Amino acid sequence: MHKSTLFIQFGPDYMRGQPQGGQGYPLRSGYDELDTTLMPPRSGPAFQDQYRNTPSPGAGNHPGYSGLNSVPGVQWRDPDLGEVIEFLSNPNSVIKANACAYLQHLCYMDDPVKAKTRQLGGIPPLVALLNHDIPEIHRNACGALRNLSFGRQNDENKRAIKEAGGTNSLVRLLRKTGDNEVKELVTGVLWNLSSCDDLKRTIIDEALIVIVTSIIIPHSGWDRSGQLTDTHWTTVFRNSSGILRNVSSAGDYGRKKLRESEGLVDALLYLVRNAIERANID
Description:
Blueprint: H1 45-53, H2 81-87, H3 93-106, H4 111-119, H5 123-128, H6 135-148, H7 155-163, H8 166-176, H9 180-194, H10 200-220, H11 235-247, H12 251-260, H13 264-277
């Protein structure tokens, strides 16, 4: 079975021999996007075959989620980019999931493919799949959007995600999902989007409350009642703090909204003090 997180775009330009910060994390820069250090995509027949023949995990008996091998008389070949994008709207859910995952692979470290995906209309159907009811489709669609939105040179893709209703759809998914991997992927996409100056205000207006109340405060260990606990330094928390770091540069409006977020300043102060006490300075 394929695992979509094996084909995730590496984070900002830290992978080119940059010096490392504490605990092996790369040093930060002024232009902040998702910093992921997972495996690069695989290639070759074995990789290609799994997208042709293997249903995504978690399919169960969901309607429309039958395996690709059940389609009679089909001879498989590598689809081109336009066909992959068309498969995103296929009524068969396993084809949708595999098309998302394959598109995520095609976009890995390939800016021309990212641009062509946008030009061929690939972003709106990916955003639409965020509203699907199968978690594996959520994972793969978010993985593709995360690759498509990575890089300063791909700000047009970030704007296209926003224009397709992507920020609202990502926030809705973040609210409703109980899948931690999906939360990591959603906050990763939002982190990338928040690096685009044009979208910082949108992120503040549409995502700030959910990020603060459902991630930053609970993970910080701070509690309004005074029952303080340890900070949970999870990937979701790291991604969310990266979003806040980016939108804090959105002028007076952004800083005012951050100050007005109930509990945010207290939570951040608590986790900073907690980190200093434990010599966790990264």
